[in-house]
Design a protein that fits this description.
Strand order of the largest sheet: 1-18-19-20-21-24-12-13-14-15-16-17-25
Distance between the termini: 42 Å
Oligomer: single chain
Number of helices: 8
CATH class of the largest domain: Mainly Beta
Number of domains: 2
Radius of gyration: 25 Å
Helix content: 10-25%
CATH architecture of the largest domain: Clam
Low-confidence stretches: 16-83
CATH superfamily of the largest domain: Lipoprotein localisation LolA/LolB/LppX
Length: 398
């Protein structure tokens, strides 16, 4: 919608202030719980791959069926029938709504507890208003079709949501990153599973229990981190080799690029808020920019660390077993979203991250992002202290 940036800022500010005070970190925030895959997959980005998925479905299906057909709680079956049969009309939705809950990383929390306010008004003439912390935005048109409500502003930007048991659930970005729940006064909202801030903080501190989270959380740049990996991208069939060292506020990334039989090495060096490019071929360097963005996230510029941090807290993934180059790997597959490609993390028998496969991805604007493939050589604390010293370089401070 017109004030999408305001919406996102509001949702993230409310959620992060309330939920991350004890955690101090965040990930991509994909929603819903993990599922188990039972579908055979094609090979990773490299064509020599022969990946496949072992099908665990038979052993997993029986518990699911017994849960669905159980008689311990007949109310659950009644609710399922209601969800399938309830149909709302435009007249049903006209009225004033108060936001009572929001979602962050798949966790639903109380707006009253977290301190945020948002209200929604849907008028009979097809217009309305929506506000966040009393800052209102006009809805020039709203529609309802098969329990899906669409809000449109005067720039023709839209936000959509669903209606369930009288509650409007708006997914402002369409990817689960900015969700709010609205209800009229007197509506029964007890079916919405709302967690306390303390409960969510505890879960965030523990992490979602994924190998990807465990890998990400094992990296501590303040104590010392060393990342070594290769990256292949289908764009111009380019290959990169990275040696990354970070410690005591210093970040050093040596990148060797190989494109069409031409190669070069550039080192990105960060310290005290300044970024430099260093060139080992002639031991010179240039000042690039000043930034404070890396003070609290020293590895924020690194490609491998970015891939891990994007999905480390996500609970929306499938677990698969794939064969690659004669070996079997446990794979966590995170689906394509509005702003990310399908990404698969391959873990070897030793539990260590071995590969990351990123599928080709087309953005909303139509831009195609080529597939890429990471081969992980090391994620450890064996920092090369000599790389943290740039005194041998002749630097042009610009």
């Amino acid at each position: 919608m017109k004030k999408t940036s305001k919406i996102i800022t509001w949702v993230l500010a409310v959620s992060m202030a309330a939920l991350l005070t004890a955690c101090g970190s965040s990930g991509q925030g994909q929603d819903t719980a993990k599922t188990e895959s039972s579908v055979k997959t094609e090979s990773p980005a490299k064509t020599e791959s022969s990946a496949k998925t072992e099908a665990p479905a038979e052993s997993k299906a029986a518990p699911a069926e017994s849960t669905a057909s159980g008689t311990e709680d007949p109310g659950e079956e009644v609710m399922e029938v209601l969800e399938e049969t309830e149909v709302y009309t435009v007249e049903d939705l006209v009225g004033e709504y108060k936001g009572f809950a929001a979602e962050y990383m798949g966790y639903t929390y109380s707006l009253e507890e977290s301190g945020g306010t948002t209200n929604l008004t849907l008028s009979a003439d097809g217009t309305g208003t929506i506000d966040f912390d009393e800052e209102a935005s006009a809805i020039t048109k709203w529609t309802l079709e098969e329990n899906v409500v669409t809000l449109i502003d005067d720039t023709d930007s839209a936000a959509t949501g669903t209606v369930k048991h009288g509650v409007i659930i708006l997914d402002f970005m369409g990817d689960g990153s900015a969700i709010a729940y609205y209800a009229k006064e007197g509506t029964d909202t007890s079916w919405v599973e709302i967690m306390t801030v303390a409960e969510i903080q505890e879960l965030l501190e523990k992490g979602p229990g994924t190998k990807t989270y465990d890998t990400w959380s094992s990296i501590d740049a303040s104590a010392g981190a060393h990342l070594s990996y290769e990256l292949h991208t289908d764009y111009e069939n380019a290959n990169f080799k990275y040696e990354v060292n970070a410690k005591d506020g210093v970040y050093v990334s040596s990148r060797t690029t190989q494109v069409k039989d031409k190669g070069s090495t550039t080192i990105t060096y960060y310290k005290d808020g300044k970024v430099y490019n260093l060139f080992p071929s002639d031991m010179t360097g240039i000042f690039v920019t000043e930034t404070r963005l890396l003070e609290d996230n020293l590895l924020g510029m690194d490609r491998l660390y970015q891939a891990l941090s994007s999905f480390c807290r996500s609970t929306k993934y499938t677990e698969e077993t794939r064969d690659y180059e004669g070996a079997s790997y446990a794979v966590e597959v995170y689906p394509e979203g509005k702003y990310n490609a399908e990404t698969a993390f391959y873990y070897g028998a030793d539990g260590k991250l071995a590969f990351i496969e990123v599928r080709e991805y087309t953005t909303e604007s139509g831009t195609t992002i080529p597939a890429s493939f990471f081969t992980i050589k090391a994620i450890d604390t064996n920092v090369d202290e000599s790389m943290l010293d740039r005194s041998a370089y002749s630097i042009n401070e610009g």
